[in-house]
Design brief:
Blueprint: H1 2-14, E1 27-28, E2 40-46, E3 51-57, E4 60-66, E5 81-82, E6 87-91, H2 98-107, E7 123-126, H3 137-153, E8 157-160, H4 164-170, H5 180-188, H6 201-206, E9 212-215, E10 218-221, H7 227-232, H8 237-247, H9 252-256, H10 260-265, H11 283-293, E11 297-300, E12 309-311, E13 316-318, E14 331-335, E15 338-342, E16 348-350
Parallel strand pairs: 5-9, 6-7, 7-8, 10-11, 11-13
Antiparallel strand pairs: 1-4, 2-3, 3-4, 6-14, 9-10, 12-13, 14-15, 15-16
Helix pairs in contact: 1-3
């Protein structure tokens, strides 16, 4: 446990790489005595000829200018479809629970004790909802940012799907943020959503991410695919992901004016639908939908359970195992098209 806590403080620094160029020493600001114990960051802003890193330690704001080559911020959208993947692991609704996430991934041999990717050519899918509720959202984001780079070097892949809580933050809906994240923007003199704006490293990275992907014959999306959504759009994954990405910096008024908001962010949308949990489709209706989208399974999160569950006779898998509570979590492990639960202790149970 001590090792994990120590590494927590190293993660944000490790993402800057060996070529980090510090242009000037950190500028020390005065302590805000309202929040003397607040520690947070880094938040990295993209400037015209440098990066500006801001961190808070014990209520003190520190700023550093970093060289232009510190980050490669050309985050191009990746394909929406992947084939011939032999092993996949998925989870969702992390909600800022960094320590629990690390424990779960170590015990299930996705990373080692040094937070290094050991899942080989496997694919790791985060099925939405990194933001809100917990107090280590930024730590989770930087960890996944770094893990994505590691996985690519080993022939693997980390997929970050956007869920309803990502879009809520983009749209400045802050109902569920932890109290810590009211303090950080105050000290930095900006709004919370600007910490992940399009002119920040993590914000720009997130803006390249999809909302729905297909791996082999399995669809992954945060909430699910409803019949209403399918009938309202041209169901092409690349087009759907493009439309969702382009909506990130639109106002709600702009989206409401042409019914986009109702289709893409309403209760039947990819990020808000809960119908599978209430069996609002018959087996026949679901199988007909699956035939149309050329898939055999759907993996979703969004609605909390005690563990990974399956519905509709092993067609729908729900991977929101209530990590948001900070006490327990599970993964869905898929090896050669066989589905398993991976418990917090690392026990593998066939579904």
């Amino acid at each position: 446990m001590k090792k994990i806590i120590f590494l927590l403080f190293l993660i944000p620094l490790s993402t800057f790489g060996q070529n980090e160029k510090e242009i000037n020493l950190p500028a020390r600001h005065t302590v805000d005595f309202q929040y003397p114990s607040l520690t947070d960051g880094p938040y990295v802003f993209i400037k015209e000829d440098h990066f500006l890193k801001k961190s808070i330690k014990n209520g003190v704001v520190f700023s550093e200018k970093l060289g232009q080559d510190t980050f490669n911020t050309e985050y191009s959208p990746k394909p929406s479809t992947f084939n011939n993947v032999n092993k996949i692991v998925a989870l969702s609704d992390i909600h800022g629970q960094y320590d629990l996430l690390i424990k779960l991934l170590i015990n299930n041999k996705i990373i080692d004790e040094d937070l290094i990717w050991i899942f080989g050519e496997g694919h790791f899918v985060v099925v939405g909802d990194i933001f809100d509720r917990g107090d280590k959202v930024n730590e989770v984001l930087w960890f996944l940012y770094d893990l994505e780079i590691q996985a690519k070097k080993k022939g693997g892949f980390v997929h970050i799907l956007l869920g309803n809580h990502e879009y809520m933050v983009f749209q400045n809906d802050l109902r569920y943020i932890h109290s810590k994240y009211h303090k950080t923007p105050f000290l930095l003199g900006i709004e919370y959503k600007e910490l992940y704006g399009k002119n920040t490293v993590i914000g720009k990275w997130l803006r390249s991410k999809p909302t729905i992907i297909k791996i082999n014959d399995i669809m992954f999306t945060h909430a699910g695919i409803s019949r209403e959504f399918f009938s309202s759009v041209n169901f092409d994954l690349d087009n759907i992901n493009r439309d969702m990405r382009e909506s990130i910096d639109l106002s709600i008024d702009e989206m409401v004016s042409n019914n986009f908001y109702n289709i893409y962010f309403g209760e039947k949308s990819l990020t808000w639908y809960r119908g599978y949990y209430y069996h609002d489709m018959t087996d026949k209706q679901l199988n007909k939908l699956l035939d149309k989208i050329e898939a055999k399974h759907i993996v979703v999160g969004h609605s909390s359970s005690d563990n990974v569950l399956e519905f509709y006779d092993n067609i729908v898998y729900c991977v929101d195992s209530s990590m948001k509570l900070g006490e327990y979590g599970e993964i869905l492990l898929i090896k050669n098209n066989v589905f398993y639960r991976g418990t917090l202790s690392g026990q593998i149970i066939k579904l």
